[in-house]
Amino acid sequence: MRSLKAISPLVAVILLIAFTLIVAGILAGWATQFATIQTEVLEKCTNARLVILDARLSGSTLTLVLNNQGSVDLDFVVLLTYPSSTHDPPIEQYSDDSYNVTAGEIRTFALSSVEDDLEMVTISSKVCPGITTRIQKAYIKGL
């Protein structure tokens, strides 16, 4: 019968410690990079603020006047919400385009093919998560 030899307990402990240190080093590098990126985004977006100054529906064109009151250029998307009474289920429709307002700028945008039963308009930043502004049907002129 052949005799099989195992590694000594001392070598096994050294290999386990080495493996643990390698995994810890990889995780520490990843965590540091992740935290740095998140901190940069938070610092950048702390001074972000977008305000809807005017919303007007004329025919099927929705005109939005937006003011970027922050110190960060913002790219954003527009979400149009329609009620469930005319659409089953309620429709939330993103505009196909991406819009940009530079820091301190007031810009006017026109969205076409908007239905007159629009319930709410939501504007969300693509750059800064959490920077969102909404306007309800009651405040949109022409509805």
How would you characterize the overall build of this protein?
With 143 residues, the protein is an alpha+beta fold. It has 2 domains: 46 residues; 90 residues, Immunoglobulins (Immunoglobulin-like), CATH 2.60.40. A hairpin with a 2-residue loop joins strand 1 and strand 2.
SSE diagram, text form:
Elements: H1 9-45, E1 50-58, E2 61-68, E3 74-81, E4 92-94, E5 99-101, E6 106-111, E7 120-125, E8 132-136
Antiparallel strand pairs: 1-2, 2-6, 3-4, 3-5, 3-7, 7-8
Which properties best describe this structure?
3-stranded antiparallel β-sheet, alpha+beta, 2 domains, Immunoglobulin-like, 5-stranded antiparallel β-sheet, 143 residues, elongated, single chain
Unreliable sequence segments = none
CATH superfamily of the largest domain: Immunoglobulins
| Helix percentage | 25-40%
Query: Given the C-alpha coordinates, what overall shape results?
Result: elongated
* Total separate domains: 2
Which structural class best describes the helix and strand composition? alpha+beta
Q: Please tell me the CATH architecture of the largest domain by its name.
A: Sandwich
CATH C-level of the largest domain: Mainly Beta
Order of helices and strands: HEEEEEEEE
Instruction: State the end-to-end distance.
Output: 92 Å
Major sheet size, sense and barrel closure: 5 strands, antiparallel
What is the beta-strand fraction? Answer: 25-35%
State Rg.
27 Å
Let me know the average pLDDT. 85
Which topology of the largest domain does CATH recognise? Immunoglobulin-like
